[in-house]
Amino acid sequence: MTGPAHNPIYAALFGDPETEALFSAQAELDAMVRVEVALAQVQSGLGVIPPSAGPAISAASRRLRIDPASLAQATARNGVPVPALVQEMRRQMGDEPEARHLHWGATSQDIMDSALALRLRQMLDLWGSRLNAILAQLGALADTYATLPMAARTYGQAATPTSFGATAASWGWPLLDHAQDLSRVRGAVLRVSLSGAAGTLSAMGPEGAAVRAGLARALDLSDPGHGWHSDRSGLGRLADWAAAVAVALAKLGEDLLLMTQSGLALVRIEGGGASSTMPQKQNPVGPSALVALGRQVIGLAAVFGAAGVHRQNRDGAAWFTEWLTLPQICVSLGAMLRLTQDVLDRLTPDAQAMDRDLNGGSGTIHAEALTFAVVAELGLDRAAVARDVGQLCANALRDGRDLLDLAAHAWPDRDWAALVRTNGLGLAPQEARAFADRQSSAV
């Protein structure tokens, strides 16, 4: 793979070494060898190939020394690396007669799809751990700052008060759903593939289904009970899930970009972000990378979806499209999960800045809460009160006076500021704590 994620200069920003390692040439080669050996052992046990063949192939695999680069030219000719791999494994077995039973009745796609499943299992374990850590971080923020007031914005404009804890919870709710969906994603992709040349397993005779089931057990994968060479819906579910998680993480990044902009600075992200010419700046690098990576994952997932249009029994063009997109989708989402943990670890809300922002519009952010408080306290007509509050808002902005001070003159004998503070956050604190509780119980 090439690109910024794999360039040593940018890899720490856009890359994820742990995920990328699972898509390395060596990891793919090792996984394919593991599948070939397991297949031979299962077939030996069932009498499909001689009983001695499986142990001999297994023993020979421990002596294998194959440079992945040595398969490149043959792969370019064949479109798949398996023929060259099998040829080299047989060559290194020398005169052993059992070598001819290697890869018996299988096809390249069986080996490669099963090997991919082995690597995806490790990847999904890694991602699940990271996602749980992010949810724990968001749960802690939601609980700690459940009542810390801040301005909610709709259409980019200050709307009503909310709390920073509720905002953290809003980042976490979709991620909690995606974490719960991960088990279904695992079920969709962690399955063995063994179908033979055209999906019939004809070369294995009546033992074909038993071989597939045995191979699934040997590799600790599920047996789908049928071939799936042209059915890419399982991997499509993985790509769709990755895109959904990317959307949620990129949304978090977008919100932090707005919260850290000059003149607002509602939160601080400690460390990094230096400018080469402007020493006063501390750029939100992590959130910016989250947004950029999110756009990449979403776009590539759409391209991957087109690979599901898999012609006839097997389709090289569709399969190649998967190879060109899935590794980068996975590396970029892995980077997003890694970056999110880092950003949240360095994130601190600024209560004073949030208070200044709340009061920056002469208190007009409290207009809705004031309207409902007046109606409830005085029993006045809601439409009439809304018009009066609207006029008070205009006066407050024109004269630079606080809306709640003007309300005290318009409707005396009530402490409107106290009433607004009591009810102004609405359900925000409860929603923040509900997320924290749900996240904690889901672990």
Radius of gyration over all CA atoms, rounded: 30 Å
Domain module tally: 2
Q: Which CATH top level class of the largest domain fits?
A: Mainly Alpha
CATH fold label of the largest domain: Fumarase C, Chain A, domain 2
Lateral strand order in the biggest sheet: 1-2
Poorly predicted spans? 274-281
- For CATH, the homologous superfamily of the largest domain is named as Fumarase/aspartase (Central domain)
- In terms of DSSP E residues, the strand content is under 5%
Outline type: elongated
Largest sheet: 2 strands, antiparallel
SSE succession: HHHHHHHEEHHHEHHEHHHHHH
Q: SS-based structural class?
A: mainly alpha
Helix content: 55-70%
Report the end-to-end length measured between terminal Cα atoms.
Answer: 35 Å
Number of strands: 4
CATH architecture of the largest domain: Up-down Bundle
Mean pLDDT: 89
Count of DSSP-assigned helices: 18
Topology (elements, then pairings):
Blueprint: H1 11-14, H2 17-21, H3 25-46, H4 53-61, H5 72-78, H6 82-93, H7 108-144, E1 149-154, E2 157-163, H8 164-189, H9 208-219, H10 233-259, E3 267-269, H11 285-306, H12 316-345, E4 347-349, H13 351-358, H14 367-378, H15 382-399, H16 403-410, H17 416-423, H18 428-442
Helix pairs in contact: 3-4, 3-7, 3-9, 7-8, 7-12, 7-18, 8-10, 8-18, 10-11, 10-12, 11-12, 14-15, 14-17
